[in-house]
């Protein structure tokens, strides 16, 4: 069994090294498909193609350990979020492993499933009148947006950003809930990921990741779906695939190995049939 599992890992790694991202996803299709929530089950092939596109476009990601990629894709499937251009979540290479990072769009979707509505987060830029009044429950934030002064380039826009905020409402609440974070607080979270060899969304989409910060913070104080609880726990982490002892990890190994056994089973049956005829 150990040899079969090692061979399975080697086969998956070979597909990645050859740049055959779609074949890699086809190999783990059964594992991913069984974990997709009902609303994505009918579009499982589309989901797999989106994941394959992410792999195909990022050579450093293809060089990450296959087990960490499998685990990240499975984790994204379990919470029902799609990696890639939609901004729901990202597969990011880091130190030879694949990390799963959620975008604010994904967290907003997960909050909705738990019965909370998170409004679209907003950035405050230099020169814009802005007041935060926590004691004013009915209208805690006053913000005049100067739409003409917002730079078109996201990196430049992040440079002129001074704060980000978000409002959330929950059924039964009289007033909205607010979360405001200044730029120093945002940089404390993502500043270390904007330089060096890091190639994730903090470097390529810094404003989008800054907008995620208050969403993630306020989500901790809202009613949570199971998927949101998983997302908050695994966000930005390397999800150990084959090495860890968690239940999900063992299931991944078992299913991958089961596929290998099923492929070899017909050969064994043929040998048995030949022996029977000889007798």
Q: Order of helices and strands, N to C?
A: HHHHHHHEEHEEEEHEEHHHHEH
Total strand segments: 9
Label the overall shape.
globular
For the biggest sheet, the summary is: 4 strands, antiparallel
Low-confidence stretches: 241-251
Q: Radius of gyration, Cα only, in angstroms?
A: 23 Å
Report the structural category.
alpha+beta
Précis, in short:
The chain has 279 residues and is an alpha+beta fold. It has helices spanning 2-17, 21-27, 29-33, 38-41, 44-57, 59-62, 66-79, 104-113, 154-160, 183-190, 201-204, 206-219, 226-234, 247-278; strands at residues 89-94, 97-102, 116-118, 122-125, 130-132, 141-143, 161-170, 177-182, 237-238. 53% of the residues lie in helices and 15% in strands.
Describe this protein's structure.
The protein has 279 residues and is of the alpha+beta class. It is built from 14 helices and 9 strands. Strands 3, 4, 7 and 8 form a 4-stranded antiparallel beta sheet that branches. Strand 1 and strand 2 (97-102) form a beta hairpin. Helix 2 (21-27) crosses helix 5 (44-57). The longest helix has 32 residues, at 247-278. The two termini are 31 Å apart.
Question: How are the SSEs ordered, and which strands pair?
Answer:
Layout: H1 2-17, H2 21-27, H3 29-33, H4 38-41, H5 44-57, H6 59-62, H7 66-79, E1 89-94, E2 97-102, H8 104-113, E3 116-118, E4 122-125, E5 130-132, E6 141-143, H9 154-160, E7 161-170, E8 177-182, H10 183-190, H11 201-204, H12 206-219, H13 226-234, E9 237-238, H14 247-278
Helix pairs in contact: 1-2, 2-5, 8-12, 9-12, 10-12
């Amino acid at each position: 069994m150990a040899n079969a599992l090692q061979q399975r890992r080697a086969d998956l790694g070979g597909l990645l090294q050859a740049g055959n991202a779609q074949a890699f996803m086809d190999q783990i299709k059964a594992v991913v498909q069984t974990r997709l929530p009902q609303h994505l089950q009918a579009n499982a092939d589309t989901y797999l193609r989106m994941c394959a596109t992410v792999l195909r476009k990022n050579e450093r990601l293809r060089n990450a350990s296959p087990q960490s990629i499998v685990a990240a894709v499975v984790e994204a499937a379990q919470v029902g979020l799609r990696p890639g251009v939609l901004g729901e979540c990202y597969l990011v290479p880091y130190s030879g492993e694949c990390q799963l990072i959620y975008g604010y769009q994904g967290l907003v979707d997960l909050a909705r499933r738990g019965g909370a509505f998170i409004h679209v987060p907003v950035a405050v830029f230099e020169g814009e009148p802005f007041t935060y009044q926590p004691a004013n429950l009915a209208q805690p934030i006053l913000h005049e947006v100067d739409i003409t002064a917002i730079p078109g380039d996201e990196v430049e826009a992040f440079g002129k950003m001074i704060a980000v905020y978000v409002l959330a409402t929950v059924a039964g609440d009289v007033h909205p809930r607010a979360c405001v974070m200044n730029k120093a607080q945002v940089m404390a979270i993502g500043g270390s990921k904007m330089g060096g060899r890091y190639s994730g969304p903090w470097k390529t989409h810094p404003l989008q990741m800054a907008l995620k910060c208050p969403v993630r913070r306020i989500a901790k104080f809202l009613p949570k779906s199971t998927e949101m609880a998983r997302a908050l726990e695994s966000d930005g982490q390397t999800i150990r695939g084959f090495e860890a002892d968690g239940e999900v990890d063992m299931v991944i190994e078992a299913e991958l190995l089961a596929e290998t056994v099923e492929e070899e089973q017909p050969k064994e049956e043929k040998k048995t049939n030949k022996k029977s005829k000889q007798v």
